Amino acid sequence: MLNHSHLYLFEENGQKIGLAGFYFITPLGETMCYIDLVYVFPTCRRQQYGRKIVDFIMSKSNENGVRSYQTWVDIENKISQHLFQKAGFTLAQLNYRRDDKGEPHES
Which residue range forms the structural domain that includes residue 97? Predict the structure, then answer.
């Protein structure tokens, strides 16, 4: 069951920094946060804004009693993997999909 959905645009001194999208769900009686989007605009990358956005999401979630988080990151997106690992996330599952030629690869 979807409880609350959130989309934020982050700015600093009038400059757009990035976006965050997340929602709260209660699948088995305990509310969790699913982080659907963390995006930092190219001109603002490598300045710790991604980590600040993830910290913001976790702070907002904690205010709502959330203690469990989940997200999906492409297996080839090492930057996002590193970002979430630094925030305390661990790899829970690898999924496989087929490319345009029908060959399986990790996703």
Answer: 2-106
